[in-house]
From TrEMBL:
Protein name, entry field: Orotidine-5'-phosphate decarboxylase
Reactions catalysed according to its record: orotidine 5'-phosphate + H(+) = UMP + CO2
Keywords, comma-separated and alphabetical: Decarboxylase, Lyase, Pyrimidine biosynthesis
SMART domains: OMPdecase (SM00934)
Length: 300
């Protein structure tokens, strides 16, 4: 039986928990996205009760199978306070199931407001605390400091948007060529990781992953090199969305991330969820994705 991956609130650093999860269960992160098409296909109403059913079913299917789940906060917010209550239950259920949770909130604001976002998603005792949160750096990566500091203090992680999977992202992220906006983001996050790593305990037999990660889409192809981003120089983890529904294949993931295997979480939401609502089908879809990714991303 695999060892439980300790959830948020534990003080073991996020990077250590993540390295162990990926080593034991592989790189798959299942996105919990309540797309209307998925809700319809599952025969669920687009209500908080439907959202709760979707979320709990995904967590039940994912338990002991995959490393992480990533609830997309937008679908919970859409239901107001009832939806946010469902998100709280979802994060708690993930923790109880031993799954790492990444709250996909894509927060970013001036430092004083960022402090409040950090408290919400990254503090012990917050009902919305996850193991990690996604952040947007477009008010300047430095404005994210309150989240970086709190994540380090509470053993949690962050994922900062660098090269996103959507086509429109290039119009901002690629600006500047080899000195691109994206490369500046990567350097800023890595600088924060170097600072954090002084306090990080390391086990000699385990890949060392620093707490602050990047979002790099599985669909980006050769753009990292073209815009001056070399993930081999990066010491955090990479969240790679775009596998499955957005068209990225395991081969494509291998060519972008093969040199940083062990530090990549591959997100798939619709690609897995469309196989539901049966638990057996969902589990088979997760196992089959993990098997498909293994030759390209498994740690040797
Ligand atoms: O931060 C993300 O997870 C994210 C970044 C990105 O570059 N592209 C991207 O699709 N995502 C998220 O990944 C999810 C889409 O998953 P699929 O249904 O597998 O395409 C949505 O929640 C997106 O917001």
């Amino acid at each position: 039986m695999s060892e439980t991956i300790q959830g948020a609130g534990g003080h073991e650093p996020y990077g250590e928990r993540l390295a162990r999860a990926i080593g034991q269960r592989g790189p798959l992160c299942v996105g919990i996205d309540a797309h209307p098409a998925i809700m319809d296909a599952w025969g669920l109403p687009q209500t908080p009760a439907g959202l709760l059913r979707l979320s709990m079913t995904v967590i039940e299917a994912a338990e002991s199978r995959v490393s992480a789940v990533k609830p997309q906060v937008a679908w919970y917010e859409a239901h107001g306070s009832s939806g946010m209550a469902v998100l709280e239950q979802t994060l708690e259920a993930a923790r109880e199931a031993g799954l790492l949770s990444i709250a996909d909130a894509k927060r970013g604001d001036i430092g004083s407001t960022m402090e409040a976002y950090a408290q919400t998603w990254l503090s012990d005792g917050s009902a919305l605390a996850a193991d990690a949160v996604t952040l947007s750096p477009y008010l300047g990566a430095g404005s994210l400091a309150p989240a970086f500091e709190l994540a380090e203090a509470t053993g949690r992680g962050t994922y900062v948007l660098a090269l996103t999977s959507n086509r429109e992202g290039a119009s901002v992220q690629h600006v500047g060529g080899r000195e691109s906006v994206a490369s500046g983001v990567v350097k800023a996050v890595e600088a924060r990781n170097s600072h954090a790593s002084r306090a990080t305990r390391t086990d000699s037999d385990q890949i060392v992953i620093n707490p602050h990660g990047l979002v790099v889409g599985a669909t980006v192809g050769s753009s990292p090199q073209a815009v001056g981003v070399d993930l081999a120089d990066f010491s955090g983890s990479v969240l790679a969305p775009g596998y499955g529904a957005q068209g990225a294949t395991a081969e494509m993931l291998g060519s972008v991330f093969g040199h940083v295997r062990g530090r990549v979480l591959v997100n798939s939401a619709r690609g897995i969820l469309r196989e539901g609502p049966g638990l057996g089908q969902l589990r088979r879809a997760m196992d089959s994705a993990t098997r498909e990714l293994e030759p390209f991303l498994a740690v040797a």
